[in-house]
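### Sample
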Amino acid sequence: MATQAHSLSYAGCNFLRQRLVLSTLSGRPVKIRKIRARDDNPGLRDFEASFIRLLDKITNGSRIEINQTGTTLYYQPGLLYGGSVEHDCSVLRSIGYYLESLLCLAPFMKHPLRIVLRGVTNDQVDPSVDVLRATALPLLKQFGIDGESFELKIVRRGMPPGGGGEVFFSCPVRKVLKPIQLTDPGKIKRIRGMAYSVRVSPQMANRIVDSARSILNKFIPDIYIYTDHMKGVNSGKSPGFGLSLVAETTNGTFLSAELASNPQGQGTAVLPEDLGRNCARLLLEEIYRGGCVDSTNQSLALLLMTLGQQDVSKVLLGPLSPYTCGKKDFLSKVVGYELAGKMKKEAKFTVMPLD
């Protein structure tokens, strides 16, 4: 194993993606030890190894060393190269697991990134491609990342455990990010959604829409939930259905919620009516939490704020998600921030220019 005096050292498998992404952006090598060292099945999981292979594909000159048991990883990042890439993701996690990190890295490539990801498009763990397309892309546009080549498209859907989905993502290069001032979320003006079903009756999606509207219609009239039923090769390898909802405010804030059915052969069967009602309640909960960025994209907003120009950026967030709290050590080292809000319901981050 290579050891470097100037490399950052961490222990454990928590925040593996964050550490590797920040290592790639900063150019600092990182060494992670004791990865599930006491587990019955120690070392890196298949989806983590797949993520490391993805980083190797989009960079040039990266050095990756893993010991025999997979419990120690040394990563020396190379140049973010970009270009046209294809990657088969592990079906243990959805494509959103990989796409979240690509959204952080894509604007800083040497060449515009055009990547095809294959695997699971919607599951119960990671943000779905539908939600990232509806919320993360508008957030990136706030930072000046936009253009004709900025696109996220679902070619085929894939549900767990078989997968079979395909997603195309392209992003232009931006050397400078604009500072943002997102402190007023505004009022909810409309709700949009996508009810999808694959390898089940198309009526499932219609039942989801009816049940979700039965709750949301009490609060706002401007609601439209699309149905998406893919057939044949475009429907992946496993049956399933789900719903993603997005609320848009008068000031351009997008708040999201989503639910998906249990994977085939796992857990109890979920009724479409229950799924629709529960997803609508989750959206109402997200709206109650408030903020100018939803829970899914909090960490993305904070990261892009720190990478922006030498100017002050401000964003108002709701209660921090556990994933966002994982960035606290990083934020305390490289940015100045303050937390404010009555009864800790809201978090207000101010990113000051670095010396």
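The chain has a mean pLDDT of 91. This sample (RNA 3'-terminal phosphate cyclase-like protein isoform X2) is used throughout the tutorial notebook.
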